[in-house]
Amino acid sequence: MNLTQWIAVASSILVAAGSAAAIVFALKGVRDQLRVTVFLTYTERYAKAMDALPLEARRPGGDYQLSSKTDEERDQVFGIFRDYFNLCAEEMWLRQHRRIDRATWQIWERGMQQVALFPPFRAAWQYLACEYDYYKEFQNFVIRRLLPESLSPGAAAGGPDTASGVPAPRPAAQRAQKSGEDGSSREDKAAAGS
Description:
This protein has helices at 3-52, 71-96, 102-115, 121-128, 136-146, 153-156, 172-177, 186-192. The chain is mainly alpha-helical and 194 residues long. The chain has one domain.
């Protein structure tokens, strides 16, 4: 090979290396943008859930008690916490599958620990925990990392919370007993938007 051929080969290698570097740089930019989008989307969902909670329910150490609220307000708070627990479960899944970085998870986990101090958190978890039987890691995370003390097995599985006076989740057959004239329960009507 003569000098001209060596220069041509070296030039081709440099162009290929430069192209590869540009592709890597562009992919890193796309990945970073996706992370920002995920962070902002989850932050927006969190803000929406927290804005829907009554102000007094968001005051750590406050005297807000679900047991003293109407069925309608309790159902509303349970619905808000259902959305919030779903959000938390998704965030945990994202971390377990390395879709978010450690710094993002640490911010989210600290936020979850703060929300766990809200007066209705424990009662909402006790009422809704059974809905997360499919995701035992999340149930264990809530019990071990978010609740100030471990729940009894019955409460974690949706048993009655005698301390707060919040009723245990009603099976479908019991909900039917509280149904209206058309045979649909209050929950069914709310889900249907009527």
